[in-house]
Design brief:
Main location: membrane
Membrane topology: Multi-pass membrane protein
Keywords: Amino-acid transport, Cell membrane, Membrane, Transmembrane, Transmembrane helix, Transport
Largest sheet: none
Family: Belongs to the binding-protein-dependent transport system permease family.
Shape: flat
Radius of gyration: 21 Å
Strand content: under 5%
Subcellular location: Cell membrane
Number of helices: 8
Length: 216
């Protein structure tokens, strides 16, 4: 196979556009996943069955169906019901919603790991329930689960190419479009693969360092 360096040069402007879209989609999806995951986790601990059971059913359904199917549903089915979203918005919502069900389990584990004495101390001080959660329990729980949440950020990065299937021109989308025009697929796909390694590997090292620091 002959390597065509001119194809790499021609692809690079599109590649950087794809990098920007990938990072934008990732950042927004992470926000959705982290915030909504916390909502799911708190709702599942509600004493009210009318809150707890529907949330459990929803999160289990989302967690046990493929992300790609969910993206297709949001992008192709919702317009039939009168709700049309842009491809990028759909990708962000789909990716964030899917991973929120996993971060919910991470938050749950963190909350369960808070010593019982912290709950008892808050009760002894007659702290309101909201203050107990947001001033005592959640700060400790979140500190415990930061490394696990970070692992899901990397997982979301690796799953971000799936949003190209609904027309989002992130890195893989740009590579596929470039290849369909120039009939040169190897070079752009190689560049995209290297880019994912360059982004994901340093992030994993940072997470390991953060985990060592937090467990001290």
């Amino acid at each position: 196979m002959k390597w065509d360096w001119s194809a790499v040069g021609d692809f690079m402007p599109k590649f950087w556009d794809g990098v920007f879209v990938t990072l934008q989609a990732l950042a927004l999806s992470v926000i959705v996943a982290f915030v909504l995951g916390l909502v799911w986790a708190l709702a599942q601990r509600s004493p009210l069955k009318v809150v707890r059971w529907p949330v459990t059913v929803i999160t289990e359904f989302i967690r046990n169906t493929p992300l790609l199917v969910q993206l297709f549903f949001l992008y192709f089915v919702l317009p039939e019901w009168g709700l049309t979203l842009s491809a990028l918005t759909t990708g962000v919502i789909g990716l964030g919603l899917h991973y929120s069900t996993y971060t919910a389990e991470v938050y749950r584990a963190g909350i369960d790991g808070v010593p019982a004495g912290q709950w008892e101390a808050a009760t002894a001080l007659s702290l309101p329930r909201a203050r107990t959660w947001f001033s005592v329990i959640l700060p400790q729980a979140i500190r415990r689960v930061v490394p696990a949440l970070g692992n899901y950020v990397i997982a979301m990065l690796k799953d971000s190419p799936l949003i190209s299937t609904i027309g989002v021109l992130e890195m893989l989308g740009e590579a596929k479009q470039f290849g369909s025009i120039t009939f040169q697929m190897v070079e752009p796909l190689f560049v995209v693969g290297i880019a994912f390694i360059v982004i994901a590997y340093p992030a994993s090292l940072l997470l390991r360092a953060l985990e060592r620091r937090l467990v001290r």
